[in-house]
TrEMBL record:
It is a single-pass type I membrane protein. GO terms for cellular component: plasma membrane. This is Putative leucine-rich repeat receptor-like protein kinase isoform X2. The keyword Glycoprotein applies.
Length: 892
């Protein structure tokens, strides 16, 4: 029995290439293809295509009965650093039984002997997507490819030639045609022959320009076997939709997202006749009015995407009565302004995803009338709505019955009351977002241990008070994102947080936390922490340990606390660090030179501390530095002249200052087959900057382009380096409140991006360089309290600055000051001295004349003891009066 079984297995294995490998001639052909795809100098497939049996090579499939190659998959194989590839099609034509050929994403610019493609008469699948082909390089003999069922040409430029696609009309057995992103318009699209493609089931025309022509889509009405039609991103307007679309009786999926559609659906004749639709996507158009009632006739509908439009009124409950197959409803980012009760969805037993978020005038009622859900949701998104306004704005209680829920977003929905413990006890929830509500009370005490699936917990911007649980690591062992900022938390940061091995983002800023930062939070090995924000608390102690090991850290924000001590040598081993904010603490000592090892650092805030000593020249090695703020310290010495060495102040270099963390979102049926999607959590890094004389908050892209140097309120001396005038992309420069001397460098005329320039409260001399009037972006300028002289530039941007920009410069003249400039302005100080001397002599003469004529009267008053406020005290012999009179004349 055993021998018989072994014999049968052996025969089976021989049929699957163990006894004989691929044909030698085909193995040689494959090696020639490998050489071609690597020319010149590539190394693709060197490790994958080795050995005698090519049927076992990666991407190669053979027919068991004949050992002939029937499938070659070379998708994304050619090294992208090589030039365009021109394959010899005769190599592929030699595979007589080839059924599948995938050459997508290989930089194909054309063919050698293109007629070789015509010999692939057994070919069923041909994928040439995302190459550099144009219409001239399409197979010239499509009528020969009579068995072809799938053709993908997406991502090529086929629209440059008007007859590029006429050859496709001969593909009478084609079932799947993908022409996405091929630059098609009506002139290139084969309208007249679409009726030939009677077996076509899937037509993908995404990201073209078919909406510019009213007749571009009419031919689609002939495709009666069509099941999937993708026309997204085509600039389609209301006039482009043909009235005959009702003929597409087999259509199951229709994607019209990202177009220019406005009219209500029921004005589009034929649309409501598509009763067999399973998937309808009209996201990101400009639809107005209400949702049409005819949607209720689409009994097979499973996926309904309406988000990103301008729908108003209510969401009609009647349309959901017969939609018993509905799995996904997304109506976010509209203008619904009425109310909807969740009892509307009670009988939709297949419902897995509801998204009504960002309808700011929509009231969502989950408590009344009474209802019992038949569904088990996987995601519920109700952010930026008004939840349960008539029932006390409580958290929906039906959520406690949902045992498949993975994502719950109730942010900014006017919730009140406390957070129930059952909400944290749900074992399936991976993302819980309650941000921006009016929730209060202590942090809820969960009864679960170790089995929570929670990856993201965001309860920021509420009124939660008290202490965080001491056992965070056992309550939420899988946390990736934890945000409790903008609450009223007290006490210390639990040591258990440092035991959360998967934690990537931690934000506890703007609370009343005290004590020291847990040592384990920054010193643990293999830490995954990327974002740490503890700003605006009452933390104290040493800023960081000498043994910190935050190797993945990108953002560290510890500002506005009470940290003390110095920044120890090499305390940050974070090569990925982009933003470091230690401002407004009580730190002291020198600014460490080792900061230059943080080569990716883009924003450095050390302002508002007690740092002393010079600015280390090593700062000039930080080529990605966008913002340097050392203001309000005790820094001395001169400004390093090497600052122009920093590339980011010489040319515009944007930085990615947002942190993105991907976690498993939920299993959601976006397509008919279903796919797992990862949800990307984006934290927009914000920072407060002082520029243009104002305190502003920057975030996202504006922050990534800001370039600022702020050295104000220090003890810097010496001249302003002329090299600073070469910082062409600098937006703001503040050197105020120092002891800088010398002139304003004429090179400042080259600060072509400067918007704010503050040199006030220094000892700067000389004139304001007139060439600076060319700084057309300059909107805030201050040189007050210096020793500047001469005329103020009086044109262009300088006409917008008022007197406060120039006060306390006694030798400056011209508008906006009241002091006019004369032709001999330079000698004016000497003339003023002569004029004062002349006035003094005249006053003395008048005083002598007064006492010579009226002195006898003063003596009479003196002798009779008359007290006058301007006379001195009498001494008896009259000498005091004589001395006083003489002293008065001399003083005058």
């Amino acid at each position: 029995m055993f021998r018989t079984a072994f014999f049968l297995v052996s025969i089976c294995c021989c049929n699957f290439y163990w006894c004989h490998g691929c044909l030698e001639e085909e193995r040689i052909l494959l090696l020639q293809i490998k050489d071609s795809i690597n020319y010149p100098g590539g190394s693709s497939l060197d490790k994958d295509w080795v050995g005698k049996n090519c049927c076992q090579w990666h991407g190669v499939e053979c027919k068991p009965s004949s050992s002939r190659v029937i499938s070659i998959n070379l998708n994304l194989t050619r090294d992208e650093r090589l030039e365009l590839w021109y394959p010899n099609t005769s190599l592929f034509a030699a595979f007589k039984e080839l059924e599948k050929l995938d050459l997508a994403r290989n930089q194909i610019g054309g063919w050698v002997m293109p007629q070789g493609l015509c010999e692939l008469k057994n070919l069923r699948y041909l994928r040439l997507a995302f190459n550099d082909l144009d219409g001239r390089e399409l197979p010239p003999c499509s009528t020969n490819l009579t068995l072809l069922e799938e053709l993908s040409l997406s991502g090529n430029d086929l629209g440059s030639y008007s007859s590029a696609l006429t050859g496709l009309c001969g593909l009478r057995n084609i079932r799947n045609l993908n022409l996405c992103s091929t630059n098609l318009d009506e002139r290139a699209f084969p309208l007249l022959c679409l009726s030939n493609l009677s077996k076509l089931e899937t037509l993908s025309l995404q990201d073209n320009d078919l909406g510019s022509y009213s007749s571009a889509l009419t031919g689609i009405c002939e495709l009666t076997a069509l099941r999937v039609l993708d026309l997204s991103l085509n600039k389609i307007n209301d006039h482009s939709i043909p009235k005959c679309w009702g003929n597409l009786s087999s259509l199951e999926k229709l994607d019209l997202s990202d177009n220019k559609l406005k009219s209500p659906f029921n004005s589009l004749t034929g649309f409501c006749e598509l009763r067999h639709l399973h998937h309808l996507d009209v996201r990101r158009n400009s639809y107005v009015g209400s949702i049409p009632q005819c949607f209720g006739n689409m009994n097979y509908l499973r996926i309904l995407f309406l988000s990103g439009n301008q729908f108003t009124g209510t969401i009609p409950s009647s349309i959901f009565k017969n939609m018993t197959n509905l799995m996904i409803i997304s109506a976010s980012h509209n203008q619904f302004n009425d109310s909807i009760s969740f009892s509307t969805f009670a009988n939709l037993s297949e419902l897995a995803h509801i998204d009504l978020s960002d309808n700011v005038r929509l009231e969502v009622q989950t408590e009344h009338p009474h209802w019992v859900p038949t569904f088990q949701l996987e995601s519920l998104l109700l952010s930026n709505c008004t939840l349960n306004k008539r029932g006390g704005n409580g958290i929906p209680t039906f959520i406690s019955t949902q045992r498949s829920l993975k994502t719950l977003d109730l942010s900014h929905s006017f919730l009140k009351g406390t957070i129930p413990s059952w909400l944290l006890d749900n074992l399936t929830v991976g993302s819980l977002i309650l941000r921006g509500n009016l929730l209060k009370g202590p942090f809820p005490q969960s009864t679960r241990r170790n089995n929570s699936m929670l990856n993201e917990l965001d309860v920021s911007d509420n009124k939660i008070f008290g202490e965080l649980p001491s056992n965070m690591d056992t309550l939420f062992p899988n946390l990736i994102v934890f945000n409790m900022s903008k609450n009223e938390l007290q006490g210390t940061i639990p040591v258990s947080i440092s035991k959360l091995q998967t934690l990537q983002m931690l934000d506890l800023s703007q609370n009343n936390l005290s004590g020291e930062m847990p040592h384990g939070l920054i010193s643990r090995n293999n830490t995954s922490l990327e974002y740490l924000r503890l700003s605006n608390n009452k933390l104290h102690g040493n800023i960081l340990s000498k043994f910190s090991n935050m190797t993945e850290l990108v953002v560290l924000l510890l500002d506005n606390n009470g940290f003390t001590g110095t920044i120890a040598s090499n305390m940050l081993s974070s090569p990925s660090l982009k933003i470091l904010d230690l401002s407004k603490n009580n730190l002291s000592g020198f600014i460490p030179s080792w900061l230059s090892f943080l080569m990716n650092l883009a924003i450095l805030h050390l302002d508002g501390n007690f740092f002393n000593g010079p600015i280390p020249s090593e700062v000039c090695q930080m080529q990605n530095l966008h913002i340097l703020d050392l203001s309000n310290n005790k820094i001395s010495g001169s400004i390093p002249s090497c600052l122009p060495n920093i590339s980011s102040w010489m040319k515009e270099i944007s930085i990615d200052v947002d942190i993105s963390v991907e976690i498993l979102y939920f299993r959601m049926l976006y397509s008919l087959d279903g796919t797992n999607y990862a949800r990307s959590i984006n934290t927009r890094v914000t920072t407060i900057l002082t520029t243009k004389g104002m305190i502003l908050t920057y975030e996202g892209l504006p922050l990534s382009l800001m370039t600022i140097i702020d050295l104000s309120l220090n003890q810097l001396t010496g001249n302003i380096p002329s090299q600073m005038g070469h910082l062409k992309t600098l937006h703001s420069l503040n050197l105020s409140d120092n002891f800088l001397s010398g002139p304003i460098p004429e090179s400042f005329q080259n600060l072509e991006s400067i918007e704010s320039l503050d040199l006030s409260h220094n000892k700067i001399v000389g004139t304001i360089p007139p060439q600076m009037v060319q700084l057309y972006k300059l909107s805030a300028f201050n040189v007050s309290s210096n020793n500047l002289s001469g005329a103020i530039p009086n044109e262009k941007q300088f006409l917008t600055f008022n007197e406060s920009s120039y006060t306390a410069n006694p030798h400056l003249c011209g508008p906006p000051l009241q002091r006019s400039c004369s032709c001999n302005n330079s000698s004016q100080p000497r003339d003023n001295k002569e004029e004062k001397k002349k006035k003094k002599t005249t006053l003395q003469s008048l005083t002598v004349l007064f006492f010579s004529t009226c002195g006898w009267l003063l003596h009479i008053f003196w002798d009779f003891g008359v007290s006058l406020p301007f006379l001195p005290t009498r001494t008896g012999d009259g000498s005091s009066l004589v001395q006083w009179t003489g002293a008065l004349i001399a003083a005058i």
